[in-house]
Fold each of these.
Amino acid sequence: MCEWCERYAEGHERWYFNPANYARKLYKIRKEEGPEIQPDPVVAGGMSLLDRGFLEALDRKDHEAVAKMRHDVEQLAWKVHFGQVVTLEDTLKVVDIIYPIALMTCACRRSMLGLPDEENFTCMGMGTGMYKWERWPQTYRGGIQFLAPDEAKDVITKMNKRGLVQTLFTFGTPYIGGICNCDYPDCSAIRTTVDHGIQFLWKGHHIARVDNELCNGCTSCVHRCQFKALSFSATQNKAYIDPFQCFGCGLCATECSQEAISMVERASMPALANVW
Amino acid sequence: MTTGWKYGKVLKEKLLTLEEPGKALLFDADKGLVEEVTQKFDVGAAAKSLQGKDEKEAYKALEELGKKVMKLTIELADTKYLDRTGEMVENVYKQTGISFPHRLGRYVELSIFGLRPTDRWNISRATTKELVLQVSACAINKALEESGIKGLPCKGFCCASFEAAAEKTGDRISIEMPKTLPQNGMCEFCISV
């Protein structure tokens, strides 16, 4: 059980299966006449606190400064906006307890790849906030498409086939307001977590395990891993997954035609049960 | 790794775009709606008028009041005080074909704001099958208590108003109350379709 399950699962199997973490009021009473004060979306991103100073501290091996900055950024992120990796199966279950769901452009790929809006609809926003998407014209300048749950499941399944990792993101923890379909290095959360060890992204509740009897060494799974956990052992001609590095997304498992990779519960492995 | 990778595209005919970028839109509930509903209906006076009646009679009278409050709320919310959130709820319904929970929830929330703006309440579940509303401080319940009316006849008010909203949205709902004031510290309404 992760820290978020301990705090917010309220009897559900996982915190992200608790419908209360997706439910919010539609309205509050308008206080003042005139235009409403628009929330600043930048506030949501603890990642914006990471600047050149952090990289320079890393370069000069100033461990104390790095640790402090990492701590400060993580504390803010966990309070406001962070993600957790989720398997495809769990993501599809989540779709049944959220509404509305809207396909929107990915801010990370917009900035990393300069991807044009019309080719960049890989993120999903959900919950009552999506009825107010026009509040953030910069974020939604490419527009938005609302999806019925079955349509959303189709989209997520396609993204998974294309090699994108499903992640759930909070917007004021524990409120979960986004499903992202991410990959390395486009996704700033994956990149910051994997490259700099700042935990914007928590590992998922599963770990991938290879059955060496079934693995035929085809290597088709290797390119699917976005977390540098999967490698190929040339001497054994088998896939190898580092369990401490595995984020439990299951992309390798969904690619394996031999069904040689299975997803096991993190909690069932004592050495990994608290590795998030 | 990702060069040439195909990401997501949308159906152009289903894409909603910013109609007037930069234009300030009003998403929150309008104070005018709250004031009009509050002026039209007086919770304290309604409670006093029920003094001396038994719980069954009080329940029936409150049912009628609930329907009237919701009728006025819907009328105001869809015309004079139509806000952008309401418009978008309808747009999304047109796009997905899914009415529940937010078309109904919108009227429910606005009716609470309208008649009892100081209530403490929360939405604890809002899926396409279930809407759960928890009311922990209720002006109607309090007014009835102060007028010496026993029991919980005010659930007639809430249930009738929610049903009136469902009639408007075309949702076939059922309502359960697993928790009630005062013993559970809240009234919990599980509205399901």
Note: Chain A touches chain B through 60 residues (CB under 8 Å).
Amino acid sequence: MSRFGNIFYLCLVFGALWGAISTILITLLALFVSGQPFQPQVTAGAIAGLVSAAVLTGLQPAKRTPAMVAFAAFAFVLTLTLASGATPLGLPLGTYSFGQLIFTILIAVFAVQSVTLTAKHLGPGKERRYNVEVLCLRFLKGFGLVVFTIAVALPFFVMVMMSLKNQQLLLSNPLDFSINFAQGAEALFRSYIELFTQYHFGSYLLNSALVSVATVAITLFFAVPGAYAVARLKFPGQNFLSRSILLIYMVPMIVLVIPLYAIFSQLGMRNTLWGLMLVYPATTIPVALYMLQGYFRGIPAELEEAGLMDGLIRLNVIRKITLPLALPALASVALYVFMIAWNEFLFAFMFLDNVDLYTLSRGIAELNSSEVPRQHLMAGAVIATVPVLALFLWFERFLVAGLTAGSVKG
Amino acid sequence: MTDQRKPQPPKGLGPLAKREMRFAYLLLLPTFLIVLSVVLFPLVANVWISFKPVTLGDLRAPSILINERLMGDLDAVGDEADIRYRARNSSRKSAIADVVMTDTLPATLRVVAVDERCTIEGENLRCDLGDYEAGQREDILVRVAATADFLSDPPNVKDTKPVFDYVPENILTNNDFTLDNFRKVFNASDFWTVLWASMYYTIAGTVGALVMGLFAAQLMNMAFRGRAVLRGLFLSPYVAPVIAVALAWVLLLDPGPGGTLNALLIQLGVIEGPISFLGQRVAEISFLGLTFNFPVALTVVIIFEIWRYFPLAMLFILARMQSMSTDIYEAAEIDGATPIQQFRFISLPQLMGIMAVLFLLRFIWTFNKFDDIFLLTGGAAGTRTLTVNVYEQAFAISNLGAGAAVAVVVFVILLMFSVIFFKFSPEDDA
């Protein structure tokens, strides 16, 4: 058996790819953090990745000790610096020297670590198809993780950073996301403070909270009895209802918006929060009902029958037996409805004319003009995003379980 | 005596079952009422409006505008002049029925003659003006003579405002129907462009979100440190308010100074000048000697849709994958199946059910999507889908009727999808 086989050659290719990816990523990170016009040295990075992969994966898996990994990383730094003509980040080493050193080491660590993980337990020799596939899939998954993470995080990153930056600075160098902490917290969060003091964001926040909480309360109040009836009681049309209730959720909001606008205008209900508190539950009740009835079916009917035998009336059976058992489902439905109401844009945009009644979505739409600086717009976006995201991440397990158990949302 | 018939099972509902049925209907009643009034009734109302010539301005109820004036000079006792009421129907389209005007005349003026439709009781004037056509205007004259008291302290006749009582015609409920709205919609030069954009958006957005969701679910199914954090991150596009993320994308893709992505691509040397991602309708791409017109803005809007909704697909596919039994994979492992073979022949067949359901649901929801495109491009640069067109017609051009007509088209297409959905929906697979 020859010393080097297909795995080794694949590792070389993946090493070069990881080298290039790592160079691009970390150089851009350095660019964002420092504001210096760094240029990724892609070719040099690929060569450095190739060299370090050759050093590391040429060894048997058992011999790839931490010391060897460190040595490979050192080889990476050396090759990158040499191949790029002493400009590992695209600028002479004289400028921003210490930062360049740190970021160059970061590039090496990320690339070598990726190569190590990709080639883990797979030796340099020739191996069968199973291990070749494992190797390729590892690279693909690692690459996918990197791409997905960046694609998802970039807009949020830009949102937060722009909200903290001054408009002039941003226009002169849009890639400079360095934060100047020396200016003090008040200057740093100026756009947030101004939104609350001059742009009524305090009242928007309150209105959003009020409408969302009211929507949750009304939805649960209506959907719980309905779901119980569909799940437990026998009546003509039960089957039809349990299948077709979700169809209501397929009705496009945009089809409802014209008649509701016309009718609410004539009834004088358009420019009120009451109007929203009527429309939002109507759209969330069907989906809440669908999710809850799925959960209620999962609760053993014997428990309720025992309650009935012991002389409880139906309403008390629901109150004392079913609801406590369904608490997780109730929580997840509540969260989910809150999320829909909080994020709703179309009806808030169409219905509300009065600044005092604006919800956050409506208020941010108002900021979207050329007269309002961008950092205010993005600060508004952050203010709207943080509560719902925090709530969601806090209760994530809950919600995910409830969502996937009962139903889905668009 | 014996009953010849065999015992029969009871027919119909027994009293207990009936009570249960009534109770069930009672529990469902609130839901039924709110859905009826806010979803089903508006659906019907939308069809109704689509046949009516209504614009946004017509929603304001018509009213009577009045101008009251003393015509002529009253300088000496016995001088005569006219008080002229000039009344007008404010609306140019709808009539007003049963107009009644009442006013109080100054006591110091002696009434000489009044319009034949008016009556005087003391100082009170009451005129039955009948029905006003759209835009109708007329003058009502009251001839008065000055008295000595009047001249010593002349009051202004305008001090007492005339009061009107009338029944305005409701533009939404009158009998005025037209087919113009639909004619306009189908004859519009861009109707087929809009329909095509809608279908392209729906299909590409749905398939893209599903494929990306499948891929992301594979990634999240691995065990690694920080997986919980990454899963939370991956879900955030779906959870964050649409307006926040859409505007972040708009600034990210901005072609002007300050646009992050363009600056980034220029710094990397990928492009030479900024690209207007959301403002450019088509780009010509030459490939193998053929030239394609690549719809730039529409594709970017689709990418946004995929970005925002792949988490949902990921969530469901992941849940399905984690409920799969591991035995079968162990057996495959022993039989020497490679990872790709395991995915192709074991995982994928088990995922087909949930994928089909997700496809149908997402297909309909993507077709219904309005806010995403509206916030990103406002329907410009070839991104106007049917739903954006509803808004465009009804609120940008202020023609409610035409907007409602487009909405009817949207709903009919949707009904066709729903029929297909119901036909192919697997039983309880989600």
Note: Residues 6-182 of chain A form one domain.
